[in-house]
Amino acid sequence: MLLRRSLRPSRPLKLAAVAVLVAGLAVVLPGVTAAPRVPRVVDVPSRPAFVTPPAASERPALVGQVLGPSTVLRTENPGRLQVLLADGRSFRLGGNAQLRIEPTLLDLLRGRIIAWIDPGSKGTMPLRIRTRVGTASIQGTTVFIEATADKVLFLSWEGQVEVRAADGTSYRLTSGQRLEATPQGWKGPHRMDAAEVRKRRRSSELLNGFQAPMQTLPVIERELGLTP
Asked: Which of 73, 164, 170, 175 could serve as a FRET partner for 132 with CA atoms 20 to 30 Å apart?
């Protein structure tokens, strides 16, 4: 009996072993569970959708794909994709779109984008989206932009959006307002009527059909009176 007891590890040794095991897990788990601090593709619900890394050839977009600075994204109807940026902000791209990811902004060359900052995010710089006619800035907001050959449409789905035109003029949009840049000049901002809001919510390919979540969607529906 005395021999058996002497062979058993003491309680302090057991606790020390557990502590070492937990510490080892703490080292391993962050690398597994934490979101990578780099932009990456999180959803490709429809194709064609492509990624062109810097100094590389275009390739099909894949979930989990890391997107470095100056990466170009491209979609062709009905292609769509969703990207999670390094700071936790997100955007969806669709239509015949082309966009370049720059270190301080998103450069939308053409097509449709909806971008948002999660509710409750604080102390972050505005997300900037540049177009050929001006740059939109958002913070705690959801913005939709459509750039075609005829016009560029800016739409605030919820929150405040600032659009600074190429000539320096500044426009401010609030929830449900739209602003257009056309060859004849700027129109708006003015508020969408209820019928347009419902139609866009129902038919938008960037608001519907994704598996990856859009955290501001409940805010949009509440702000624009789309919830029962």
From this structure: 175
Calculate the average pLDDT of the chain.
86
Say which residues have a Cβ less than 8 Å from residue 226's Cβ, sequence separation at least 6: 197, 198, 201, 220
Give the predicted TM-score (pTM) of the model. Answer: 0.83
The C-alpha atoms of residue 83 and residue 75 are separated, in whole angstroms, by 13
Q: How many beta carbons lie within 10 A of that of residue 118, not counting itself?
A: 15
Residue 122: per-residue pLDDT:
63
In sequence order, the 6+-apart residues with CB closer than 8 A to the CB of 147 are 108, 109, 110, 111, 112, 131, 132, 153
